[in-house]
């Protein structure tokens, strides 16, 4: 019973801690090699000139009015600010313009507003009404996560282009043909296609978690219906709306394929411009611009993660009662019906148009575009993009991504399951892929590993194919983690403890108890990872440049520049089928992304 | 079977001390309970014994063997956690037999062993069910069977009844006790319910704020609470503070019964000045005049004045604030000046207004 019990102070590591440490190191090593190092190598390029530290490249970008508009002019020549302000006032405070970066933020803001506007009514309908197919609609809101952006672009061209469905319809009734291609409106609409479902998903999920007893208490306290909703429901939903909006802004700020295909260089965003600079081998300016973009995205993503962490999860109270849709007032039903038509035009028409475009030629129904996918293989010159090669590469990279992303994502879930400050930091770092654009990652991998890099005295060169798989895995594993972590968090921590007390080692308990119980999440995450790999465009297009490693989305983009919509539509349809199959797996197995 | 020793055990999380230092000895074959309010360190203590956590300082040993660096799977313990943590993806049979993968039963017939256990807890025939299809009480039995399957030398139960309703809780705790006696397995039982602790334990430790307040048999802890906390936490109690006025010759005071003192010593009596009256009560043998003393008196030790003898000692006057009929007794809450007094009197008593209650000197327990 001595008080000198310090003699028993534990030293050294238990086996479990050693395993955790090893796993952490392995994850850290992979992410460092395939994410942080390549991205950092891009950023370094932005702050060095011929090997010496210098802010010149960054300053050049920041002070160039082309990039930052009035802000850049002011930075370039601060002494001219008063005169500039005077001139601005004299001009009646006209819109000063903030250059490429400003435009990118502006279109992201418009896209966010459009997504919220299009998504909120949907969230309301899902949360408020009970109707047949409600669950299906809810499930479908997860679809954009697996739809390849370039395929969506094809769908929008097939709908809103000069030969698109709407234009055809106009022509059929004698109205002039039209095209919305290369308009900001179409880019914003395509972004809404992508992100409105996200808004629906996050906000309706929050609405379904609402504890309506708070509403009842408010009503019982004397608040009229609208006042109770305003005082009690709205504040509970605002965080979810904020989360959705922030996420939408981050995604659309970095948007690439949609802008490239639907906006072209005249509506170029930062991401598209970085791509263009890379293609013209102006790597330093590309790096500097990418750095500016990364800083914006990373800060917003960090804000998002912090904000999300503060939100309460899951109430135990009574949830909102849903009204049978048939019982709603006629005016409500009309409004919901009108909203349904809008969603059909925005969401279904592009996909339907693409599929239709792939089987309709100038003389009616045809399979020749699909025949082309096979035939061109045999006739094409070697420098041309061969369809079958693209399909083969896509599948190969997809499985490669699975092999990397699933173990990685599950390991990150396990390592971050127990909370703690270090875990929080690690968790945030692990979500860097959300914030780093594919083009920057692609550029980083290209510069470092594909061109060759020297590490510890060894020259390391990776093939483009491996770099593509690495890029896909880095982009996909957070989805595995996000599918697995919530299931893991719901597990009673006593489960593995009981297994251990029964005699199982820590790893055996993991294998016997935790893994079987989160298997649904693992499989859903795997389907996510596969779909994301199949659809990834941003990093792939950079890494596949000039090599045989092009994938289906890259092929779609290349075919899109040709005259006929047939080939890209046919390949887009193949993409649609593959990703739809992945989606079914995800949906069945309960992969979730509720913010 | 094995005894358990905790020597100078402390558990700290960063700067906050969750437990200790604690020294504790649990006898071989004993049913030992850790009882205390939530956050008192009782579950932490259990987890340290199980090996789910390591002590920051100090040592746990089981059967005389130091457990430093021994992971849970090498400790030969059976665990029933709160909410049971049945493996939801395994059948009842697979749950119960899980530990037999690692600790095969003598003779090696795991199936027979599982049947034996299901029989023991009265669940024969339910082996193929999913845990989700069982009632709360059945789940608890499965958890118990699972913990006992490999014949562990030590059984650890963490609030195993907390998810059950009151009636079922009482029945199952008797059953747990029966099975424990039958197997003679050393058992450490954690509960926040002091009544449950008194009912099931061979001995119990009352814990508060990371420390052990008192260890003893249920009777010892109830009859002679050693600290203010124990007096208030175990059963209902009235606490008094006062100053010793004079020491009294024990034989000069009329007492209803002889106090059960340690080793036959006559306890010391003293006249103590309380808030509004002087009382003659038991004090510690080394109490001196002028010293501040504290003591407790159980509600059932009081007698309503009308029932007391002609010259009552220790009479307290108060006004009845609340009357609760409990079936076997009536519980009165009295306002006595600033203080509140709780007394239990005969079930048929329905006093009102001003009453006087008395207690015998030996009913006072010095703290």
UniProtKB/TrEMBL annotation, chain A:
<feature type="transmembrane region" description="Helical">
    <location>
        <begin position="21"/>
        <end position="39"/>
    </location>
</feature>
<protein>
    <submittedName>
        <fullName>ABC transporter permease</fullName>
    </submittedName>
</protein>
<feature type="transmembrane region" description="Helical">
    <location>
        <begin position="395"/>
        <end position="417"/>
    </location>
</feature>
<keyword id="KW-0472">Membrane</keyword>
<keyword id="KW-0813">Transport</keyword>
<keyword id="KW-0812">Transmembrane</keyword>
<dbReference type="GO" id="GO:0005886">
    <property type="term" value="C:plasma membrane"/>
</dbReference>
<dbReference type="InterPro" id="IPR000515">
    <property type="entry name" value="MetI-like"/>
</dbReference>
<feature type="transmembrane region" description="Helical">
    <location>
        <begin position="569"/>
        <end position="586"/>
    </location>
</feature>
<feature type="transmembrane region" description="Helical">
    <location>
        <begin position="139"/>
        <end position="162"/>
    </location>
</feature>
<keyword id="KW-1003">Cell membrane</keyword>
<feature type="transmembrane region" description="Helical">
    <location>
        <begin position="174"/>
        <end position="194"/>
    </location>
</feature>
<feature type="transmembrane region" description="Helical">
    <location>
        <begin position="515"/>
        <end position="534"/>
    </location>
</feature>
<feature type="transmembrane region" description="Helical">
    <location>
        <begin position="429"/>
        <end position="454"/>
    </location>
</feature>
<feature type="domain" description="ABC transmembrane type-1">
    <location>
        <begin position="101"/>
        <end position="304"/>
    </location>
</feature>
<feature type="transmembrane region" description="Helical">
    <location>
        <begin position="460"/>
        <end position="480"/>
    </location>
</feature>
<keyword id="KW-1133">Transmembrane helix</keyword>
<feature type="domain" description="ABC transmembrane type-1">
    <location>
        <begin position="391"/>
        <end position="586"/>
    </location>
</feature>
<feature type="transmembrane region" description="Helical">
    <location>
        <begin position="244"/>
        <end position="266"/>
    </location>
</feature>
<keyword id="KW-0997">Cell inner membrane</keyword>
<feature type="transmembrane region" description="Helical">
    <location>
        <begin position="105"/>
        <end position="127"/>
    </location>
</feature>
<feature type="transmembrane region" description="Helical">
    <location>
        <begin position="334"/>
        <end position="356"/>
    </location>
</feature>
Automatic annotation (TrEMBL), chain B:
<keyword id="KW-0813">Transport</keyword>
<dbReference type="InterPro" id="IPR003439">
    <property type="entry name" value="ABC_transporter-like_ATP-bd"/>
</dbReference>
<dbReference type="GO" id="GO:0005886">
    <property type="term" value="C:plasma membrane"/>
</dbReference>
<comment type="similarity">
    <text>Belongs to the ABC transporter superfamily. Sulfate/tungstate importer (TC 3.A.1.6) family.</text>
</comment>
<dbReference type="InterPro" id="IPR017871">
    <property type="entry name" value="ABC_transporter-like_CS"/>
</dbReference>
<dbReference type="GO" id="GO:1901238">
    <property type="term" value="F:ABC-type tungstate transporter activity"/>
</dbReference>
<protein>
    <recommendedName>
        <fullName>Molybdate/tungstate import ATP-binding protein WtpC</fullName>
        <ecNumber>7.3.2.6</ecNumber>
    </recommendedName>
</protein>
<dbReference type="InterPro" id="IPR027417">
    <property type="entry name" value="P-loop_NTPase"/>
</dbReference>
<dbReference type="InterPro" id="IPR008995">
    <property type="entry name" value="Mo/tungstate-bd_C_term_dom"/>
</dbReference>
<feature type="domain" description="ABC transporter">
    <location>
        <begin position="4"/>
        <end position="234"/>
    </location>
</feature>
<keyword id="KW-0500">Molybdenum</keyword>
<dbReference type="Pfam" id="PF08402">
    <property type="entry name" value="TOBE_2"/>
</dbReference>
<dbReference type="InterPro" id="IPR050093">
    <property type="entry name" value="ABC_SmlMolc_Importer"/>
</dbReference>
<dbReference type="InterPro" id="IPR013611">
    <property type="entry name" value="Transp-assoc_OB_typ2"/>
</dbReference>
<comment type="function">
    <text>Part of the ABC transporter complex WtpABC involved in molybdate/tungstate import. Responsible for energy coupling to the transport system.</text>
</comment>
<keyword id="KW-0067">ATP-binding</keyword>
<keyword id="KW-0547">Nucleotide-binding</keyword>
<dbReference type="Pfam" id="PF00005">
    <property type="entry name" value="ABC_tran"/>
</dbReference>
<comment type="subunit">
    <text>The complex is composed of two ATP-binding proteins (WtpC), two transmembrane proteins (WtpB) and a solute-binding protein (WtpA).</text>
</comment>
<dbReference type="GO" id="GO:0005524">
    <property type="term" value="F:ATP binding"/>
</dbReference>
<dbReference type="InterPro" id="IPR003593">
    <property type="entry name" value="AAA+_ATPase"/>
</dbReference>
């Amino acid at each position: 019973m001595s008080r000198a019990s310090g003699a028993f102070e534990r030293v050294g590591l238990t086996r479990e801690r050693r395993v955790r440490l090893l796993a952490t190191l392995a994850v850290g090593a992979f992410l460092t090699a395939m994410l942080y190092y390549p991205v950092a190598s891009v950023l370094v390029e932005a702050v060095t000139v011929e090997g010496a530290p210098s802010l010149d490249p960054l300053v050049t970008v920041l002070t160039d009015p082309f990039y930052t508009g009035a802000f850049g002019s002011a930075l370039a020549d601060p002494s001219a600010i008063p005169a500039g302000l005077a001139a601005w006032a004299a001009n009646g405070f006209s819109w000063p313009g903030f250059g490429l970066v400003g435009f990118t933020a502006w279109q992201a803001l418009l896209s966010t507003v459009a997504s919220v506007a299009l998504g909120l009514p949907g969230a309301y309908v899902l949360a408020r009404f009970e109707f047949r197919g409600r669950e299906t609609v809810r499930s479908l809101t997860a679809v954009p996560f697996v739809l390849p952006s370039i395929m969506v672009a094809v769908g929008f061209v097939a709908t809103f282009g000069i030969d698109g469905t709407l234009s055809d319809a106009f022509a059929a009734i004698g109205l002039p043909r039209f095209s919305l291609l290369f308009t900001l409106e179409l880019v914003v609409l395509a972004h809404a296609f992508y992100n409105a479902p996200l808004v629906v998903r996050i906000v309706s999920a929050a609405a379904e978690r609402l504890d309506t007893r708070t509403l009842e208490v408010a009503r019982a306290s004397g608040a009229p219906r609208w006042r109770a909703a305003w005082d009690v429901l709205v504040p509970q939903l605002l965080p979810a709306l904020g989360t959705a909006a922030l996420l939408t802004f981050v995604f659309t700020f970095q948007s690439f394929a949609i802008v490239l295909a639907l906006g072209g260089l005249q509506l170029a965003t930062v991401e598209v411009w970085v791509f263009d600079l890379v293609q013209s081998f102006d790597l330093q300016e590309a790096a500097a611009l990418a750095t500016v973009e990364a800083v914006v995205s990373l800060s917003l993503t960090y804000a998002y993660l912090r904000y999300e962490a503060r939100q309460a999860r899951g109430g135990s109270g009574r949830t909102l009662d849903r009204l049978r849709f048939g019982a709603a007032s006629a005016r409500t039903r009309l409004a919901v019906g009108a909203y349904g038509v809008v969603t059909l035009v925005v969401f279904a028409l592009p996909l339907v148009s693409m599929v239709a475009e792939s089987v309709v030629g100038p003389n009616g129904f045809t399979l020749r575009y699909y025949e082309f996918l096979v035939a061109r293989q045999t006739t094409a010159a070697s420098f041309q993009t061969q369809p079958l090669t693209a399909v083969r590469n896509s599948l190969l990279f997809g499985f490669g991504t699975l092999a990397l992303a699933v173990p990685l994502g599950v390991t990150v879930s396990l390592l971050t399951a127990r909370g703690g400050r270090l875990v929080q930091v690690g968790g945030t770092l692990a979500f860097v892929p959300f914030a780093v654009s594919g083009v920057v990652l692609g550029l980083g991998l290209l510069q470092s590993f594909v061109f060759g890099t020297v590490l510890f005295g060894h020259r390391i060169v990776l093939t483009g194919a491996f770099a593509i798989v690495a890029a896909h895995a880095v982009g996909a594993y957070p989805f595995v983690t996000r599918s697995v972590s919530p299931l893991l968090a719901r597990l009673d921590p006593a489960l593995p403890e009981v297994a251990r007390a029964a005699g199982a080692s820590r790893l055996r308990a993991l294998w016997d108890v935790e893994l079987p119980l989160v298997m649904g999440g693992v499989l859903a995450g795997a389907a996510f990872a596969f779909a994301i790999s199949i659809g990834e465009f941003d990093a792939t297009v950079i890494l596949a440049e000039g090599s045989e490693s092009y994938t289906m989305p890259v092929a779609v983009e290349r075919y899109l520049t040709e005259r006929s919509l047939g080939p890209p539509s046919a390949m887009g349809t193949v993409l649609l089928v593959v990703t739809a199959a992945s989606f079914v797996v995800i949906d069945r197995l309960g992969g979730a992304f509720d913010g | 079977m094995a005894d358990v020793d905790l020597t100078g055990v402390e558990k700290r999380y960063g700067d906050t001390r969750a437990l200790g230092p604690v020294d504790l000895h649990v006898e071989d074959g004993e049913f030992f309970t850790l009882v205390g309010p939530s956050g008192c360190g009782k579950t932490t203590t259990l987890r340290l014994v199980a090996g789910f956590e390591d002590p920051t300082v100090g040592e746990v040993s089981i059967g005389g063997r130091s457990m430093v660096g021994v992971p849970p799977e090498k400790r030969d313990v059976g665990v029933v956690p709160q909410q049971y943590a049945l493996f939801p993806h395994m059948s009842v049979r697979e749950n119960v037999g899980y530990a037999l993968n690692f600790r095969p039963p003598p003779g090696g017939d795991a199936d027979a062993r599982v049947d034996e256990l299901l029989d023991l807890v009265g669940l024969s025939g339910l082996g193929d069910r999913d845990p989700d299809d069982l009632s709360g009480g059945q789940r608890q039995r499965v958890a118990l069977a699972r913990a006992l399957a490999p014949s562990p030398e030590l059984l650890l139960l963490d609030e195993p009844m907390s998810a059950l309703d009151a009636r079922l809780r009482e029945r199952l705790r008797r059953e747990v006790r029966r099975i424990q006696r039958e197997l003679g397995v050393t058992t450490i039982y954690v509960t926040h319910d002091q009544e449950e602790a008194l009912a099931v334990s061979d001995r119990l430790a009352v814990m508060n704020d990371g420390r052990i307040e008192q260890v003893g048999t249920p009777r010892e802890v109830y009859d002679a609470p050693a600290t203010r906390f124990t007096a208030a936490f175990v059963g209902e109690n009235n606490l008094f503070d006062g100053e010793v006025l004079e020491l009294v010759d024990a034989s000069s005071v009329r007492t209803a019964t002889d106090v059960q003192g340690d080793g036959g010593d006559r306890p010391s009596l003293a006249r103590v000045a309380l808030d509004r009256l002087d009382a003659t009560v038991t004090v510690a043998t080394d109490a001196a005049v002028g010293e501040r003393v504290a003591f407790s008196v159980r509600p059932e030790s009081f007698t309503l004045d009308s029932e007391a003898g002609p010259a009552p000692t220790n009479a307290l006057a108060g006004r009845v604030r609340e009357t609760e009929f409990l079936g076997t007794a009536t519980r009165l809450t009295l306002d006595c000046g600033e203080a509140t007094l709780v007394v239990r009197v005969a079930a048929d008593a329905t006093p009102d207004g001003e009453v006087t209650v008395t207690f015998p000197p030996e009913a006072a327990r010095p703290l």
